[in-house]
DNA sequence: AATACAATGATATTCACTTTCAAGCCATCA
DNA sequence: TGATGGCTTGAAAGTGAATATCATTGTATT
């Protein structure tokens, strides 16, 4: 068991206590599966993964658990406009997304200089910034080669 | 009639000719309404607006027209993860979005300095940038007042 | 005008959530 | 330990924006 993962679990358990919510087997299984992936995922992927291991996990429960993880600050919702809501483990640095308009591949990269600048502009408009998402769309390297 | 709008209309007409598509009254009305707004819009807004003026415009036609505008390079699709697909006039300035996590209000503002910088980073990764979206989430001024 | 297609729009369908509700589970307290 | 109360679960139903269907209508061309 990873040290980081253990801390996240404790963070979640604390969150549940403070809110008067309950630690259930399902929430624990879903959190393990979520932390076990090293990439963003979505409801149905986790749901099918867990159904393969445990026969009694419902779609609605996975849905509610992921939203709960987000509320607890453990997960971050990512919407790339393809009709699916993705979730990734929060914490760590902000990421920018490169979405290929041709093959749909999503590449991530880090760049922190933008965030401060942009957040300051928002504050001038009386807006308190909680998160920033930068999404670039275009053609990835592979697709450029294929097209010549 | 704005000079820029006239050029856009000619661009669209040329696009239709090249593709063997037809210039219809509906497409003309929808394009006028779309260009007449100085902000992003979505299907139902345009649909209701046009229904107020002309009794025979269908939801499906507005939907298809906006996708056609996007294919023609006239419109740009924007998805903010709130379940609606927005469209804004392409070719204008890029816009950044402030989405309130409390009331869902979307505020737009312009800020062009970021784009070049970010696009250059992407090019270094072998990625040809076609569009850039910056989305800030947080609490808007109104909601801050309400909460004290 | 006749013809060949494309476009329209009321309607139905899809699909990814999101909610409902009866049955079950968890934390707490005597 | 056992009762109690409220939270949780999950099958099923509901929601709503997007998309497809198809008979009818419109457009461009000859
Ligand atoms: Mn609708
Ligand atoms: Mn949807
Ligand atoms: Zn690609
Ligand atoms: Zn607000």
TrEMBL record, chains A, B:
Which keywords are on file for this protein? Cytoplasm, DNA-binding, Metal-binding, Repressor, Transcription, Transcription regulation, Zinc
* UniProt-listed Gene3D superfamilies: 3.30.1490.190, Winged helix-like DNA-binding domain superfamily/Winged helix DNA-binding domain
Which InterPro entries would you find in this protein's record? FUR, Fur_C, WH-like_DNA-bd_sf, WH_DNA-bd_sf
Q: Does the keyword Magnesium apply?
A: no
Family, per entry: Belongs to the Fur family.
The record, for PANTHER family, names: FERRIC UPTAKE REGULATION PROTEIN, ZINC UPTAKE REGULATION PROTEIN
SUBUNIT field: Homodimer.
What this protein is called in its record is: Ferric uptake regulation protein
């Amino acid at each position: 068991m990873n040290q980081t993962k253990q801390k996240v679990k404790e963070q979640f358990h604390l969150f549940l206590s403070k809110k008067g919510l309950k630690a259930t087997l399902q929430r624990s299984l879903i959190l393990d599966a979520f932390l076990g992936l090293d990439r963003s995922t979505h409801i149905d992927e986790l749901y099918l993964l867990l159904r393969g291991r445990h026969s009694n996990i419902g779609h609605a429960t996975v849905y509610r658990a992921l939203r709960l993880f987000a509320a607890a600050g453990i997960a971050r919702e990512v919407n790339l406009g393809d009709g699916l809501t993705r979730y990734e483990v929060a914490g760590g640095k902000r990421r920018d997304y490169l979405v290929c308009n041709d093959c749909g591949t999503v590449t991530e990269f880090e760049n922190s200089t933008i965030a401060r600048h942009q957040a300051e502009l928002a504050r001038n408009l009386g807006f308190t910034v909680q998160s920033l998402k930068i999404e670039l769309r275009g053609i990835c390297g592979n697709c450029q080669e294929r097209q010549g």
